[in-house]
Amino acid sequence: ATNAGGLNVIRYGMARANVLGLEAVLADGTVISSMNRMLKNNSGYDLKQLFIGTEGTLGVVTRVVLALQEQPGSVSTALVAIEEGRHLATFLKHMDRALGGTLTAFEAMWQDYYRVNTAGLGRDPPLGRDHAYYVVVEGQGADPAADDARFTAAVEAALESGLIVDAVLPKSDAERERIWAIREHFQPDPGLRPFFSYDVSLPLRDILVYVEEVRGRLQLEWSTARLLVVGHFGDGNLHFIVSPGAAGSGDRAAMHAASDRCVYQPLQRHGGAISAEHGIGLEKKAWLPISRNAQEIELMQLLKRTLDPRNILNPGKVIDV
Amino acid sequence: ATNAGGLNVIRYGMARANVLGLEAVLADGTVISSMNRMLKNNSGYDLKQLFIGTEGTLGVVTRVVLALQEQPGSVSTALVAIEEGRHLATFLKHMDRALGGTLTAFEAMWQDYYRVNTAGLGRDPPLGRDHAYYVVVEGQGADPAADDARFTAAVEAALESGLIVDAVLPKSDAERERIWAIREHFQPDPGLRPFFSYDVSLPLRDILVYVEEVRGRLQLEWSTARLLVVGHFGDGNLHFIVSPGAAGSGDRAAMHAASDRCVYQPLQRHGGAISAEHGIGLEKKAWLPISRNAQEIELMQLLKRTLDPRNILNPGKVIDV
User: Do the beta carbons of residue B169 and residue B150 sit within 8 Å?
Assistant: First the structure.
């Protein structure tokens, strides 16, 4: 119902791409059983799309047929450091091409995020804390020896060409987990509270300038504002952690609203999305016009009124009717 | 509008999986501009799904944003022979696992199809014509030397284990094209006319028994019936060419209707699709209840009536309203 994403969307797509069929219950109690099991089925309208990512507002999903993939037999990981923002996209393209379709993750951390999440390690982090950007890149294939050699050669080529300035390749699963923990386990320091989280996406080429636009707006709002940036760079999906810092004042709701303005208003001119993977719910409903135009919202409302005329399915979520 | 498929769906998905955004014109002239450029966007309903694969019945698609993929740097191909039908799916799984996500095509030909399409070659075909099944399997990766070695090793392992009984690996692009031509360029002999073509899909495990069910029904209909089977086996999608043969009598429409019955009626109990990739249009409309239940068809009709109340968009196609 939320078309969830995650760390491996770049390889496997979001939930929508992995759902073959489903069963849903409509507002009038009708059970729509579309339990398709085929990879290909163009026999009439693909009704499951009405229920994937619509957050329960058009029907209640009660069963799902998921497509399975062969489990990869190899995994190759690196944590790399990048100094110039423009190299993020170039390094992504380099690895995507070099790995020939086996790239499974490309996760970026801006410096502030890396510093916060390595502060409590109790040991030196895998890479120094003064680089501008960090990327966890991973490929999964079939043949550990050959895949590791290819992956390592691709990382070495990026080092030699200056795309990346440092890299560490884990030598064990435990080391791999420690690298992933830096990306995954957010460890906010006390000075960061309160903080507000975001889930935006935009075209790759606009990401760097957009982040600095947001940072500039936040600093105008609060001189001590902090912006931590992390995300699924390979998907164009960033997660922000925004904190007013010590200069933040006012109640939490007012601070949250100010933070929203700083993040969402500059997103519109980039054609970006206010939610890449977590959906709209109640919290982002007022901001939906940043990402969708009036005709789109009217068509959503028409679908909602048609399928749920008494507005009983997750009422008030996503759109008003 | 038809959610087209093709030879590489197993790797890249159908059109739906490759469309990021689109613009469509509704029946009342409203232009819905959903020109999303991101891989991830969960900001409200994914409206483009209304127009992908609905054959122009809910709107006219006027612009599309397509996702591009890195061009593969290597291609490895084999034509193999298989004697036992159950080995088709096992060989698919073997190659999918061995190639670690780089499998791009898995196309099967039953003996009769291979014979028809190699009859006019003017030379010996790449493999003898007495095998039960033939598969064109292809992987595309990044590194020609390493990928070819891995691909060849996977085919050799299948030979050694008896999954396949013969194989030929092209040594040039010209040889590769000759192999693909056997799969791609259907060359019906005069005795095959008239013939009727089909585009069904069903779960892999049911394919062999279903094909024989269809063959049995056709032989009851016409003692000289011929059934040529080819298709995107990796997607569970078969294309049939059905000919009444010399015993065929009656007008073409009556023969076509009899052929339809033989193909579609046994499909229902397998939960199969009467159209895997070519859509419903007019020709398959009467058979839609084989693949979709009454509740699904009513929901399709509700969408159609809501979005096109005057029935002016490709009227009469896919469903009646």
Answer: no
User: Could you tell me the pLDDT band of residue B121, with boundaries at 50, 70 and 90?
Assistant: confident
Q: Position of tokens 């004042």? A: A249
Check B201 against A39: CB less than 8 A apart: yes
The three-state secondary structure class of B241 is strand
Note the ipTM here.
0.95
Q: How far is CA A99 from the centre of its chain?
A: 22
B150 close to A142: Cβ distance less than 8 angstroms: yes
Choose the mutation target among A25, A35, A36, A45 for the interface with B, i.e. most B CBs under 10 Å: A45
User: B197 to chain A, minimum CA–CA distance in Å?
Assistant: 16
- CA neighbor of A232 nearest in space, from A74, A19, A10, A58: A10
**Mean pLDDT of the B60-74 span:** 94
- Which segments of A142-251 does DSSP mark as H helices, in order? 144-160, 173-184, 207-221
Nearest CA in chain B to A33: B296
The distance of A193 to chain B (nearest Cα, Å) reads 27
Contact at CB, A17 and B17, closer than 8 angstroms: yes
Query: Which residue in A10, A43, A50 is closest to B280 by CB distance?
Result: A43
B chain contacts of residue A97, beta-carbon cutoff 8 Å: 70, 73, 142
Residues of chain B contacting residue A18, judged by C-beta atoms under 8 Å apart? none
* pLDDT averaged over every residue in chain B: 96
The one-digit pLDDT tens for each residue of chain A (321 residues) are 999 999 999 999 999 999 999 999 999 999 999 999 999 999 999 999 999 999 999 999 999 999 998 889 999 999 999 999 999 999 999 999 999 889 999 999 999 999 999 998 878 899 999 999 999 999 999 889 889 999 999 999 999 999 999 999 999 999 999 999 999 999 999 899 999 999 999 999 999 999 999 999 999 999 999 999 999 999 999 999 999 999 888 899 999 999 999 999 999 999 999 999 999 999 999 999 999 999 999 999 999 999 999 999 999 999 999
Nearest to B276 among A41, A235, A291 (CB): A41
Reference B6, options B174, B235, B240; nearest CA is B235
Q: How wide is the angle at C-alpha B122 spanned by C-alphas B117 and B125, nearest 5°?
A: 55
Beta strands in B97-224, from DSSP E residues, in sequence order: 103-110, 133-141, 166-168, 196-197, 200-201
Inter-chain CB proximity A141 and B101 less than 8 Å: yes
Do B100 and A143 make contact, defined as CB atoms within 8 angstroms?
yes
Shortest alpha-carbon distance between residue B108 and chain A (Å): 16
Look up the pTM and report it: 0.95
Residue among B31, B34, B41, B68 with most chain A CBs within 10 A, to mutate: B41
What is the spatial distance between Cα B156 and Cα B169, in angstroms, rounded to a whole number? 11
